[in-house]
Design goal:
Blueprint (H helix, E strand, L loop, with lengths): L9 E9 L4 H15 L7 E5 L9 E8 L2 H8 L2 H10 L3 E10 L15 H22 L1 H4 L4 H27 L1 H4 L16
Antiparallel strand pairs: 1-3, 1-4, 2-3
Length: 195
């Protein structure tokens, strides 16, 4: 979960391809590392990215949030992180890829450069409108009589859950060709960080 992150937070997306037959071993190690890394003082939040079941993809990732570049660099220089690198190197194909994410880019994670922001905004709008309207017609009448705060918490939790796990993954897949930007991907500092 990306919790407690501010508007100037740094978000880093790291992806790693796993050797066939090592998926379960990597997932177990990733879950343990994920839990330990959240205890590190520099990590302000993280989200785990695993391939959809049946997709055949071998790409795994983590999106991490840091308050600033110093916290980011301290985490990637930490003994915890160095030990993780050693542990997963035999399970991985090639080098991990890392880049900073800005704004809506977390939804539009690709191996190439992120799409232009206007395309991300339009795609997000196309996802939000039907979700809000659909929940307004189904969940809205049920929660309308509840306490204002509670009804909004439940309604908005439904919006976020549907966007995150259903609508945005489907929409970004459907619009993949259109979303591809012509922008070049800029390197993430001079350092190579890996999951």
């Amino acid at each position: 979960m990306l919790a407690g992150v501010g508007p100037r937070s740094i978000h880093v997306a790291i992806t790693r391809r796993i050797k066939p037959g090592h998926e379960q071993e990597f997932e177990t190690a990733l879950k343990e590392f994920f839990a330990h890394s959240l205890a590190h003082s520099g990590v302000h939040g993280a989200a785990m990215l695993v391939p959809p079941p049946g997709s055949g993809s071998m790409e795994y990732g983590i999106i991490r949030s840091f308050a600033n570049a110093d916290e980011r660099d301290a985490f990637y220089a930490s003994p915890l992180y160095r030990e993780w690198q050693k542990q997963v190197a035999p399970l991985s194909e090639g080098e991990p890829e890392a880049r900073e994410l800005h704004g809506l880019e977390a939804f539009f994670r690709q191996n190439s450069a992120p799409p232009p922001r206007w395309k991300m905004a339009l795609a997000t709008y196309l996802g939000v409108v039907p979700v809000v309207m659909g929940l307004g017609l189904t969940v809205g009448p049920v929660v309308r009589s509840w306490n204002f705060v509670l009804s909004n918490l439940v309604f908005n939790a439904g919006v976020v859950a549907l966007l995150t796990w259903v609508v945005m993954p489907l929409l970004t897949r459907a619009l993949h060709s259109w979303l591809k930007g012509e922008r070049r991907e800029l390197p993430l500092n001079q350092n190579r960080h890996g999951l």
